[in-house]
Amino acid sequence: MLYTKKAPKRAYYLSLEFLMGRTLDNALLNLGLKKNYREAAKSLGFEDFEELVESERDTALGNGGRSSEPLRMSSRVTSTTTRSSTLIGLGRLAACYIDSGSTCELPLWGYGLRYHYGMFWQQISADGSQVEAPDPCLNHANPWEVHRPDVTYPVRFYGRAERIGGRKSIWSGGQEVVATAYDVPIPGSYTRNTNNLRLWDSKPKRGFDLNSFNAGDYEKAVENSNSAEALTRVLYPNDNHMVGKELRLKQQYFWTAASLADIIKRFKQLDEPWSKFSEYVAIQLNDTHPSIAVPELMRIFVDEEHITWKDAWVITHEVFGYTNHTVLPEALEKWPVPLFERLLPRHLQIIYDLNQDFLTGSEQCSPDLSSQQLTIHRFGNVTNGITPRRWLDQCNPGLSALITETLGGDKTQWLKDLTKLEGLLPHADDPAFQKKWADVKLQNKQRLAHFIERTMGVKLNTSALFDVQVKRIHEYKRQSMNILGVIHRYITIKGLSEKDRKNVVPRVILFGGKAAPGHYMAKLVIRLINNVTKVINADPDVEGLLTVLFIPDYSVSLVQAELLIPASDISQHISTAGTEASGTSNMKFCLNGGILLGTVDGANIEIAEEVGEENGQSTRTMSAILPEKYLNDLCLRFPVFFFGHLAQNVEDLRHSHQYHPVPLDEVAPALGVVFDVIAQGHFGDGSIYETFLNTIRQGDYYLVSDDFGSYIVAQEMVDEAYRDTASWIKKSITTTARMGKFSSDRAIFEYADEYWNIEPLKLE
To answer: Quick check: is 584 catalytic?
Structure first.
């Protein structure tokens, strides 16, 4: 009602994922009511309030962790040809932004889809393979959503588009479904402001066909209902076949069309002319999935509102912003023209017209298109962030309490201004404070160990170094190198005398993440991880020195990410340089005092720039061009462990692999030994993994062999650093203290100030 009365300019965030996680605990913390509810629950007989909190099921509106420092294109959008992310973490990023929007009292709404089934429930079979099972996240409804049967919009597919002059068309026929709204309130932290996340569910325009049923055609009787409801049934249908591609494109258009219809309806209530649309509306497209919104808004303006083509494009141009997260070729979302033309005939006309305008304008500037540099008017960069309310206060209450005690005052002061964490720096060398810090870390390890023993039956050595890599399983993220490094560590320990083993730094190595159902190689890596785990954890020679686990069905829920992240001593972010904008997951680990091990890429660089400013030295700008021979020196000076080749070397190395291959034993002798052990069947039938091993022997597109030696050296440096307890704890404290830049509050204010032109509006 506040926004309706005051009529400010609003921003709308369109994201195909919103990984909000468990709502109860987050809402109670944001509202400052957790203590009251704990006492109330106890009076009702719930002695263990945390068990009550954990019983809430995640609403599976997303898939995984997200990139930092995206290349962001503002409102000068000139084409609907967009670049996609790799479908990881859009939901976590969007959840942080929506939370920060409410906390910062900004008029920001989210729009997404109300999936009935999540991506899938990951199970691990007896042979170590990933098995996908349905994840019916709405089987028992969602108590946090409000059904809005009064907010519905028709959405059309297929049919025909007939031009009627002036670039206008009539789109008719085909199939119509109804988008129905479900609202999820997003309360801000210690403010009365609450924003909204509106999710769309698909319903048939015409339901059960009684005539067909009476005629004995039972399948046709429910055909309309099944077709409509399939749109919001599953998150990311497999698009390895044409039916999956079609359903995915339908999902994207359905969601954006309903969202734009809702935005336009709200604007019309202001009774303002269309020329002022951009003064009241800013729309942010979170990656490629909502890019169809550009021709859809043009269609509405030209065909339904009878705005001239030229004026419609001016308004559209001013309204949209687009966030690009990665430029991986495999992530470029493409649609076959015949499919697009059949499903959205009017939109293909508009895209052709926009392309013609763009090329015509380009020819007028330079007839020689072959030598012309096409430029976009406005690019910008916003480094992403995470919400400290959830990713420190909620998931790590012990550390939150210690920080508040040390900084003084109320915790809301630093939770709303994360730069205040720098107040911890004067205490980093204080032995008493270091002990308190270490005690919190130990308690978090014990909490995770208890959960793992209870759910997986494995005991963890909580005095060991906890080494965590939790991400979507993919070749470029190189979980492969991690598990190959684990095997190398195992072989090395096995080769030591009993006396020398006493000097080994104990490790607990934890993996987590899902592989896309159609990604064979990623699933093979999961199988290898699980079979290596069986052998190592059953070997008495390494008991207490090396434990490896794969956490099934990893998610952002309390019992997984919110237990793993606070317990980590080191986290791995080891994608091939140049392939990753990197993730907000590294920010979460570092905010909780975890040390980073990674390649010189993406947000790893920015984190090093922030946390590495000790003794008057800085990695700023230097890290982007750092010669590889100095990587180890950087690790010694700063609380970040870098390794591997730099992005500018990657293509030359790939070229060498293709045209001047060198035997694996020469490139990485230690890796050759690891391959021999796998092939000999030490971890089950070695022939199963030959396909995977050959991708590294031949071609090695992701440079596992090239980076392996540097990776092992970096791991040895981690061991050496961990032996010096006081120095390690200081690195941990410094890392947390320097993470102020990576708050999503800062990021959302940058969007608001520099791109959306919206201002805070406080509910008194």
So the answer is: yes
pLDDT digits (tens, 9 = 90+) for 456-496: 999 999 999 999 999 889 999 999 999 999 999 999 999 99
Catalytic residue among 156, 250, 477, 514: 477
Distance CA 12, CA 197 (A): 10
- 23 is known as an active-site residue: no
Amino acid at site 52: L
Q: Which residue in 467, 468, 462, 433 sits closest to 447, CA to CA?
A: 462
> Residues 156, 588, 730, 738: which is the catalytic one?
588
DSSP-based three-state secondary structure for 764: coil
Catalytic residue among 472, 478, 519, 573: 472
Which of 387, 533, 584, 735 is flagged as catalytic? Answer: 584
Annotated catalytic, 588?
yes
| Catalytic position from the list 325, 445, 478, 507 | 325
Q: SS3 of 583, please?
A: strand
Catalytic, out of 116, 471, 489, 573: 471
- Predicted confidence at residue 347, as pLDDT, reads 97
Q: Is 599 a catalytic residue?
A: no
- Residue 185 near residue 203 (C-beta atoms within 8 A): no
* CA atoms of 74 and 52, how far apart (whole Å): 44
Residue 54 pLDDT exceeds 90:
no
Q: What is the mean pLDDT of residues 311-326?
A: 90
Cβ atoms 221, 210 nearer than 8 A: yes
pLDDT at 615 over 80: no
CA pair distance 735, 569, nearest whole angstrom: 12
* Measured distance CA(653)–CA(620) in Å, rounded: 26
Using alpha carbons, select from 580, 481, 490, 492 the residue that is nearest to residue 525: 481
Angstrom CA distances, 266 to 7, 9, 113, 260, 396, stand at 10, 12, 20, 10, 40
For 534-575, write each residue's pLDDT tens digit: 999 999 999 999 999 999 988 755 457 889 999 999 999 999
Measure the CA–CA gap between 196 and 185, rounded to whole angstroms: 5
| pLDDT band (50, 70, 90) for residue 63 | low
- Find all residues with CB under 8 Å of 362, minimum gap 6, and list them: 369, 372, 374
Rounded Cα gap, residues 163 and 166, in angstroms: 8
The yes-or-no answer on residue 35 being catalytic is: no
488 is catalytic: no
Cβ–Cβ under 8 Å, residues 219 and 242:
no
pLDDT-based confidence at residue 578 (cuts at 50, 70, 90): confident
Q: Rounded to two decimals, what is the model's pTM? A: 0.88
